Each structure stands twice: as C-alpha cells, then as structure tokens.
Amino acid sequence: MDAIREALERSGYAQLNPVQELAVPKLGRSLVVAAPTASGKTLVAEIAALQAFAERRKVVYLVPLRALAQEKYEEFKQKYEPLGVKVALSTGDLDATDSWLANYDLIIATSEKMDSLLRHGIAWAKDIGLVVADELHLLHDPGRGPTLEIVLTRLRAFQPRFLGLSATIPNYQELADWLGAEAVQSSWRPVPLYKGVCYDQEVTFQPPRGFKLQGSKVLEELTDLPKQSLVFISSRKGTEAEAERLAATIKKRLTPEEEGKLAELGDRIVHALDNATPQCQRLAACVRAGTAFHHAGLTHAQRSLVEHAFRAGTIKLLCATSTLAAGLNLPAYRVIIRDLKRFSSFRGMDFLPSLEIAQMMGRAGRPKYDKEGEAILLPKNQREAEYSWSQYIQGETEKIYSKLGVEPVLRTHVLALIAGGVTTTRKGLLEFFSRTFYAHQYKDLTQITRHLDAVLRQLEGFGFIRTGEALPAPAGGEVFKPAYFWEEEDPHLEATLLGRRIAELYIDPLSADFLVRTLRKLRGGSTFTFLHLAANCLEMRPGLSLRKQDFEVADQALAEKEGELAAPVPNAWDLEYEDFLRNLKMALFLEAWADEAGEDALYEQHGVTPGELRARLDIADWLLYSAGELAVLLGLQPLLTHLRKARLRLRYGIREELLPLVRLKGVGRARARKLWASGLRSLADLRKVPLQSLGRIVGEGTASSLKEQLGQLGDQPTEETLLPRKLE
Question: Are strands 106-110 and 87-90 parallel, antiparallel or unpaired?
C-alpha cells in the first residue's frame, strides 16, 4: 500500500484508475498489461518498481527509442530521486560495461543498450528484481523486435519479475504465457476516443456522431479549431509541405502573446545550427505561424524544442511521421491520419497495419485537458474509405508475431551468445532458442534450426567461431580437432578472440568480415579510404538516394579517387552497381563534412538533413572505432594512425591542419578555424598569444579556459591535459 500511495501522490492522482485496479493486485508476480495509450500503464510500472526497491532489488526499464528513454529518465528522476531512488539512463556507448550502473536502483535503457550490456557480462544482472518492457508489442517490429526478444530471453535466466506494457492486441495472453506471467487486458482509457473516417465531405465517427465539411479544403477545415491537432503523414517531405500549407490557417487565430513566444522559439530553432539549412528556415517559419513538422531529419535540439512547445500548447498543430506514435507523450485533441498507405519494396503501396494506426489514433485526447479526443482517417477514394471503416474503426489490431527466425537477424545474436558463453554447444544453442517467443509461438524449431546451422557455417567461415571437438593440449589449455558441426552430433562451439571482440563491438558479422578482409589488404590510405570503408558497412544502410546529378559526380569521383577506394568497383551492368554508387555518395558526403562543409551545403549538395547528418556521423564514427579495434587484433598497428586521423576529422568536421587545436576542450570546428585564420596554428602559438588578444578572438571565458588547459592559469598542466580528448 505504501508503494501505491507514494506513486499516486507523486503522479498527482487521488486513486487508481480501472486499468490500474486490475493490474496492481497482481504485481507480486510477472504480469502483462494490454491497454490503450494513456490508460495509466506507466503508473503500474512505477508501483511495481517501488515494490522492487523495497526488496532491495534493481529495476531495468526497457524502451524502444532513445527519445523515450530520455523522457522516462527525466520523469522518474524528478519523481523518485527525492525518495533516495538512484535513477540512471544508459543508451550510448555500445562498447562499455557501464560498471557505474551497479550503484543505481532504476536503470532506463534501450533494448540495444541492454543487449550490449549483457554481451559485456555485467556483474549486476543478478541483482535485477524487475524488468519492465515498455511497448512490448514491438516484438513484432522487424527492426527492434528480435533484439528485445533476445534480451528478454537472456534476462529470464536471472529470474526477475517481468512487467510487459503493451497496446491492446489479440494475442496478449500468448505473450504473458511466454513470460510465465499473468495477463490483464482493458479497453478503458481516461479520455473517450471518437474514431472516424472523413470521406466525401463528411466525417463519421464511432461511437456514432459526425459532421459535414463546409468546403473542399479538408485539412484546413479539420485543423481550424481552438485545440491542438496532430497530423500523421507518411514522408518527411510531406510533413514539411503540410505544416507550411496549414500555417496560414493556424496563424490567424494566434494571440499577440502567442506570436511573441513563437517568434522567440523560431529564432532558437534557426540558431540551433552553426549554418542554418533551408529546412531549418522552413521549420522556423512554420513555428512562427504556430505549426511545426517533426521527423528524424531534425536535430535532437530542434526536435526537443518542438516537442516541449507542443506539450506546452505553444505550437498548435504538428505534422509528424509515424515514429512519433511509438511512445512519446505528445497527445492532441484531434489526430488526423492523412496517409493510410506506405511504400513497401515487397508489396508496393500497401495499407498500414491496424496496430500502427491504433497507436497513432491513441494520441487523440489529452488527459487532464480534454473530455474527449477525435481521431480521423483521410481515405483517398471509396475503396480506402470502406477498408478504413471495416479494418481500422471496427476491426481488431493484428496479432503480433516473432520476427526472430531470419538469418540476418540471427547471425549477430548467435555470435553474441557463443562469445558470451551463454551456450557452448549446438544443443545448448537450440535450447536457448527453445525459450524464445518464436519457439513458444510456432512450437516447431525445424525452420529456425536450418537457419542456425547456416549461420554457424557462415560464422565459422569468417573465422569468428570454432566448431568441433575440444581436446586437451599437451602444454595445457584446449585445442580444437577440426570438424564441422553438421558432422557431429553436438559439437563444441567457441568464439575466437576476433569473434568475441566483434560481438562486444555490436556490429553485424557481415560488416566485420568486410572490415577484416579490407583492412588486411590496406597498406595505408587517405581519410577518404576509411570513410569509404565505413560507408560500405551494413550499418550505414540505406545508402543515400541518387539524384540525376549524382551520377555525373560519381563518375568524376571514381576518376579522381580510383586508388583510394576501400571496395572494388562493380561492372556498371551488375545489380550491385547502384548500391556501390549510393555508398560512394555516402563517403563523399562524409568527406565533405570532414572538409568543413556546413550543414546548409550538405543539405544542398547531398540532400542530407541536419538530423540525418548527426545519425550518420555517429554510425560512421562507431564503425571507424570498430575498425581500429579490429586492426589491433589483426596486428595492423600501422593503420591505426590513419584510422584515428579519419575518426577525429569526422568527429569534429575539420581539415587535417586543425587537428592540434581541437585537442583543447571548448575548441570545435568553428573556433579552431577562427584560431587558424588568426595565425594561431599550434599549442605553442596559443601559449605565446596574450590572454587579452586571445579573448578578442574566442571570447574571454573560452580564452581563460584555453590558457588554463595550457598551464598558464591556475595549476600546471598534467600529461593528460594536452592529450587528444577521448572519443566517446
């Protein structure tokens, strides 16, 4: 009861709602709660966590997205740290054990980060008393689902309680049975939801009600109301175009006070980058009119500004891609789903899954603000209207199915299981997969066994594992009797030193094989060589899309950089040639950044948005770091200088001559170039220049900091002071 009282008080509620009343009495055991968005599932997790803290056990809170992890971290930290609960966020470096987490009570992590921690053999896993899996229905997602499934299967070995929080799905009981949990299902939500279809100038809702539109401008009329609206659109370009188009409708009902706040917000968005791109200018213009767009092409800072302003009610209308529906707390009175279809490489244009539509519709209605919410679908013809009504309004969401049983997914997880000692035999590997949701759901491991055998063959061919019979060596230790696992009943499986490091680095074994083979061939190389190396790894896919002018640029680059390529050039008529060109364009874009091109130039020349730039740089940085780690194991130390130089240039976006200057904290690409232009081109130059003169170049505060690092203010420098900053 103390946990319930505490959670209610800190969340501002007087009593449990119907969903919580069903779930809370069952929290002494594992539980799956399937209920709509905004039905209070998070409070159930908080009560369960408080119970685990009382038992002196850790809680791991798994989420699908970094943004959602950050949101939960800020919420829980504010609520529960005053009680002495130590809250940690772990979403970053995938090659770290984060041993400091042993001192924390509540650890919020993405599934990928938790997978990485388990691969590194964290000692505190035995102290976990509760695992909360938020958005558990994402087990069906081909991208995120397999990792979540593997993580939950591995964590079961430590026998914690599980609490799965899921959308309303037909087979929630199947999920509960897999986790050895009880199940609670409810359709209750705090704000009643009216789900409707708009077609032929008429909106029809369920529960029954509706209204007619007065004109032909459907979206303008649907969003012209004194409440917030959220419009889901399938493409990034579509969100931008629609936010611009609807700006005039929204702007006319802003108060002078709101216009002032939005003008200030627009300025902050423009100045979030050193070089504002056309996209930044477009977003700022929309914001000043009370609208905004939200997609992965924005920087983290810009997305945060938009999200905060929408939550505060400052932005009246938000056009977003579907990723916004995956857990972020951004409700609106009215949700409009403009695009009901999405392009698939297998099926072409196809209807969105009912579960995805349901998640979008679930954003309608703001608890504490609205007495109801409206979700409106916009079919483009009568067939779509009929399908929308039967499938999305009256129909059930689809069952969720495991996406674990395909070879590309299996190869990275199989290597990790062998490298981590979770399994050392083929039989043990099959036993592990017999505990997955895949096995529970399909009951037959015949197909996945074939895939596992193919993966083991592949990993052995790469030299990442050894299979066969382990024999005692004459001088102690073990040697392997060469054999293939399919020739023995139950061969021993062991990761090689290379294989163990690849598992820890969290890169795809196919990428690792490409890196190993290519590094062994190289005798040196330019920065472009190593950027092209990273660009050809699977983690960088999809490559940059090719425009008409890119083919001419590619031809010129191939002529100029023939001796610097990390991958061979296919024949122009081969199927893989277009993929090669995409990867080449990626390398050229990375090189342009390292040559100090601004975000605006990259957007114009390569079509890369600021948000995509940050994401691509992070992945390329990780691949170059991984290449360096593999080079050490391969005894290729001469390549390390080239790799580190390429990584530093990519990290800071600088030409080679600025490398000495960015060794100092507070000096990035802009300040380094400013110092260079002022004739200060080395640490020795910086020591000679008077503090006052340096202050005129970089500002007084930064100048004092630089002088202190150089040992000319305060304490004398240590050896570590002037070493290159650690690349995180």
Answer: parallel
Q: How far apart are CA 357 and CA 73, in angstroms?
A: 27
Binned average pLDDT, 10 residues per bin, the chain of 728 residues:
78 87 93 92 93 94 90 92 92 74 94 92 93 95 93 95 94 96 94 95 94 91 93 92 94 93 93 81 94 89 91 94 74 94 75 92 88 96 95 94 89 95 92 95 89 93 85 53 54 93 95 96 91 95 84 87 89 86 94 92 87 92 96 94 95 94 90 92 90 90 90 53 41
How many other CB atoms are found less than 10 A from the CB of residue 227?
15
Asked whether residue 64 falls in the same domain as residue 153, the answer is yes
Q: Rounded to 10 degrees, what is the CA torsion of 294, 295, 298, 303?
A: 50
Distance CA 285, CA 712 (A): 46
Residue corresponding to tokens 């890196």? 515
DSSP string, 415-439: HHHHHTTS--BHHHHHHHHTTSHHH
Q: With contact defined as beta carbons under 8 Å apart, do 279 and 588 qualify?
A: no
Residue 402 lies in a domain: no
CATH number of the domain to which 673 belongs: 1.10.150
Q: What is the bridge-based pairing of β-strands 348-351 and 209-212?
A: unpaired
User: Per residue, what are the HEC states of 507-542?
Assistant: CCHHHHHHHHHHHHHCCCCCHHHHHHHHHCCHHHCC
Tell me if 168 is assigned to some domain. yes
Are 554 and 606 part of one and the same domain? yes
| Boundaries of domain holding 463 | 407-505
Side-chain-side CA neighbours of 383 within 13 Å: the count stands at 2
Answer yes or no: do 361 and 457 share one domain: no
What are the tens digits of pLDDT across the range 404-445? 988 888 999 999 999 999 999 999 999 999 999 999 999 888
User: What stretches of 524-664 show up as alpha helix (H) in DSSP?
Assistant: 527-535, 548-560, 577-594, 599-606, 610-633, 638-652
